[in-house]
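Good day; I would like, with your permission, to put a structural problem before you. A protein sequence and the structure tokens that stand for its backbone fold form the material at issue. Thank you for your consideration; the sequence and its tokens are set out here:
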Amino acid sequence: MKTCLLLILLVFISPSLSAKRYWPSELVNWTLSLNNGVAYISSPQFAEHCSYSRGQINMDGTEFNKAQYAYALSAKAKDKKLKYVVDSEQTTCIITGLQEVAR
């Protein structure tokens, strides 16, 4: 009975304990750099919980991360504002989505 009750509690409580991905405010003034196999997007507008006011795209060779880096490079070349997706509880913010913002 205790095991069953514990299982039921975990089912209802665990979703509220998990971190959530979200779109923080857009980046108006941002830079893109590549260092030791990691691409960094830095900006003073980055989410507060992200260390060093930056997020990273791991350049691990996956098509998704290569595409994100290419997308960021293209947005920078066109001097576009950028929106990004990060986890709400990580201090080393891994970018899991990007979107250009029209001016």
